[in-house]
C-alpha cells in the first residue's frame, strides 16, 4: 500500500519531470527558430559573394574611348569606356543591327562593365590599341537570373524573349562565368545592386567602434573606480549612481538626438562621419561599461585589499595594482559586450546623418561614411531584387563580427583570469 509520503514524493518527481520537459521544449523551440532564421539568411544571402560575368573580346580603340596620349592616370580616369564594352557584346551577335534591338541587348551588361575596362587600362595602359579578353559583369537582372532568383516565365518575368535567347546563346558558348565577388567585400555602395559593396560600411563601423572604445573604455573604468572605491556615500553620489543605471535603459535614439543637438549643432562637428558616430555610441556604451566594471570590482575578494594594505600599499596602489587587474576580466567582457551592442545600433546613427548614400570607402574617421546596420537598413528599403541578397549577406557579415567579438570576450576573459590566478 502506498503511503501518503510516497504519493507526495511521486507527485514532486512528476512535477520536476514536467518542469524539465518544459525547459527542454523551450530550448528546442528557441533553437529551432534561431536555426530557421540563420538558414533563411544564409540561403538567400550567400550568392551575394559571387556574381555572373560574361567573357568578351574588347577592342581597346583609343578614339572610341576618347583617349589621347600620353595615357596618364588622369587621362584614363576621364575616358569613355561604355562604347567599347557594348561593341564587344554586339560582336557576339552580328545579326543584331537595329539600334532599338541593340539597346535591349546592351541591358545585359552592367554599368560595371565600363569600370572593369577602365580598371584594366589603369594597370595595363600599354595594351591600348589591341584586343583583350575581359570578363565584364552582367546587369543585376541577368545576374539574378543566373543565380535562380528571378523566373524565366510567369507573372513576374522581367526579360523579353529575345533577351532570354541571347542569354541562352552566351550560356551555350560558355561565355558566362560565376566568379567570387570581391567588389561586395571591398567596394562602396552603389545604385546598381551588382556593384554595391559593404567595404565602406565596414570601414565606417570600424572607425566608429574605434572612437567609441577610445572614449568609453578609459572613461568607464575611471568613473567606475571612483564611484566604487573613492567616492563618499553622499546624496550626490547616490543620484549619480541612479542616473547611470537609468541611462543603461534609455532608448538608443535618445543618444542620437543628443549627438545631433550637441555634437553637430553646438560644436559643429562634420555630419555623417564615424567620428561623431563613435562619440554618440560611446555615450550609449559608457553606462554598460561602468556597471560591468563596478560589478567586477565589487566581486574582488576583500582579502586582496587587506593583504595589500598589510604590506604597506597605499589605497591608490591597492586599487590600481591589485583590485583592477583582478577585476579586468569582467571589465573587458562588459566592454566587448557593450561594443557588440553598439555595432548593431542603427537609430543613433540615423539621427546624425550616417544614412546618406556614400559610394566611397572612408580613409579616416573624418570622412563621410555609412555603417553596417545603416547599410542593411538602406538596402532593405530598396525595391531592386538584387538588394535582397545583399541585405542578407550584410546581415551574415555583421553576425560574423558579433560572434567573433563574443568569442574574443571569452578568450580574453579566460586568459586574463588564468594570469591573475
Q: Could you walk me through the main structural features you see in this protein, from its secondary elements to its overall organization?
A:
This protein has 421 residues and is mainly alpha-helical. The protein folds into two domains: 134 residues, no CATH class; 222 residues, Orthogonal Bundle (MetI-like fold), CATH 1.10.3720.10. 65% of the residues lie in helices and 5% in strands. The protein is built from 17 helices and three strands. Strands 2-1-3 form a three-stranded antiparallel sheet. It is extended.
Gross geometry = extended
**CATH class category of the largest domain:** Mainly Alpha
Please mark out the parts with pLDDT under 50 across 5 or more consecutive residues, or reply none.
none
Characterize the biggest β-sheet: 3 strands, antiparallel
Radius of gyration: 30 Å
The CATH superfamily of the largest domain appears as MetI-like
The domain tally reads 2
Structural class: mainly alpha
- With strands numbered from the N-terminus, the spatial order across the biggest sheet is 2-1-3
